[in-house]
Design a protein that fits this description.
The protein has 132 residues and is of the alpha/beta class. It has one domain: Rossmann fold, CATH 3.40.50.2300. Helices cover 43% and strands 17% of the residues. The protein contains five helices and five strands; from the N terminus they run βαβαβαβαβα. The protein has a five-stranded parallel sheet with strand order 2-1-3-4-5, sandwiched between helices. The protein is globular and about 30 Å long.
Length: 132
Amino acid sequence: MSSQANTKILLVEDDQLLVRLYKKKLTKEGFAVVVARDGSDGLVKAKNDPPDMILLDLMMPKTNGFEMLAALQSSPQLKNIPVMVLTNVSAETDEQRARGLGATDYLVKADNPPDMVVERIKELLEQGESPE
């Protein structure tokens, strides 16, 4: 059984209602949650204190999720951090673009309640711990 106690999640989301919802849910599950309100803030926080995983919205002010993914991929320090895109954009082309930019997973908010998102985060982190 892996402990989430030292697992840091960077939540990059501009919708304050969703920030509160996911932060509360993830904290309750034992994760340490750092919040960024847009992609440029997310990049600064990721560089200063690299998280174990990034939860990334695509549609944000300043630097959007695609731009942040591209910046993460171009950074040797950050490119191996798993990124779960959590968005309301359900177009297949956007999912392909996000995965092409290095996203580990792609979930549509409307189709995945917070409980499912947390379970998926745990699955991805466990996969990263044990090479298959």
